[in-house]
Amino acid sequence: VRRLKTRSPRRAPLPKAVNLFDFEALAQKHLPLVAWEYLCGGAGDEITLRRNRECLDAIRLKPRVLRDVSQIDTQLTLFDQRLDHPILLAPAAYHKVFHPQGEAAAARGAGAAGAVLVVSSFATVKFEAIAAAAKAPLWFQLYVQRDRAMTRELVQHAETVGCRVLCVTVDTPVGGSRNREMRRGFNLPPGVKMENVAGVRGGSPSAGHITSGDIYSEHLDPSMTWETIDWLRSFAKTPLILKGILTKEDARLALEHGAAGILVSNHGGRNLDTAPASIEALPGVVEAVAGRVPVLFDGGVRRGTDVVKALALGARAVMIGRPYLWGLAADGAEGVTQVVRLLLAEFRSAMALCGVTSLAQISPEVLWP
Ligand SMILES: Cc1cc2nc3c(=O)[nH]c(=O)nc-3n(C[C@H](O)[C@H](O)[C@H](O)COP(=O)(O)O)c2cc1C
After folding, report:
1. Is 267 close to ligand 1, i.e. is its CB under 6 Å away?
2. What span, in angstroms and rounded, lies between the C-alpha atoms of 264 and 244?
3. Strand 240-245 with 166-169, pairing
4. Taking the chain (369 residues) in consecutive chunks of 10 residues, what is each chunk's mean pLDDT?
5. Residue of 53, 172, 270, 309 to mutate, ligand 1, most atoms within 8 A of C-beta
6. Which residue's C-alpha comes closest to atom 29 of ligand 1?
7. Rounded to two decimals, what is the model's pTM?
8. Mean pLDDT of the chain
9. Which atom of ligand 1 has the smallest separation from the CA of 265?
């Protein structure tokens, strides 16, 4: 028994991370418990968080054979940008909680893997420094602030440093009930702060998170409506996409209000628990949008096969959230690069084994009926 214990796989150092879950294990070793709980937690009973994975796992792919898969092309054009592959890095707040170089390391790592990084409103490194570290395009994620003048400045600041898409998060008028954070009293560590949201009082650094009994956050605007989207469009110079749409109804409204794209997302299961898995919501949104604008997808993507599944159901590209933060925590910029490269290699392998060689060929035909 003693021998078995000392050799238990949990304790053995990983010889090499070969997939995203290996990076999850590495990240856990590197992070203090409170940061770990912030990173991996979901809302409520984490039913939606688990469902994101369960529903992706439940979809089966259809292998096809003898189709010459010697050349695989993963390139695409999205919002007039040529991208090497359809794997983007979702906006995530507070990268310095995971690595001392924060978003600068994430941008460097993303660039080395040819991945777009969507910079969060709650970045802990100044936009200029993130842009200086970036070699691939940056997009900007907006949490609309109660102070509209400040919100406008934030958008214009992001545009000035070269962010090419404005990704407005619409699923967070209030934060979800994230019990793990609440239990640990998650707060920003000393010296770490939101570097680009000027003018917000520093008293409550855990933006958007419910650490007290109040559901509202001073960093989120619960009064936001579709008119706010019209207002943003009136001055934004970059295409505006809406992040966090799960229903046909909201997808139609998004189009009426001029969204250039829609990101189907349940915020990684961190907001409304018992909402459906993102992958369950994707087909409905794709149907409502009917090809008029690109539909993007996030929530539970961990395997190259997941990317194939999302694209088969109509997504043009996917975003990953936690996995690149695992890479960041485990090994800084290099870890981020490795996470994207591993996922991309799996994606290319899955494409080949489904008998397709370009993104255009990924259709519902690759799914097992
Ligand atoms: C630690 C963490 C912080 C996040 N911060 C933000 C944020 O600042 N803005 C935002 O729109 N979404 C945020 N999200 C949600 C992600 O953009 C994304 O929707 C989600 O992580 C995708 O699911 P996945 O983690 O299963 O890949 C955050 C997610 C995590 C895990």
Report:
1. yes
2. 6
3. parallel
4. 46 79 97 97 98 99 98 98 98 98 98 98 98 96 97 98 98 96 94 85 47 81 98 98 98 98 98 98 98 99 99 99 98 98 98 98 98
5. 270
6. 92
7. 0.95
8. 94
9. 19
| 95 in active site | no
Q: Does 141 contact ligand 1 (Cβ within 6 A)?
A: yes
Residue type, 139: W
For ligand 1, the distance from its centroid to the CA atom of residue 5, given in whole angstroms, is 36
Atom of ligand 1 nearest to the CA of 299: 23
Give the relative orientation of helices 102-112 and 322-353 as an angle to the nearest 10 degrees.
10
- Cβ-in-10-Å burial (0-12, 13-18, 19+) of 252 comes to middle
Q: What is the pLDDT of residues 150-177, one digit of tens each?
A: 999 999 999 999 999 999 999 999 999 9
Ligand 1 within 6 A of 208 CB? no
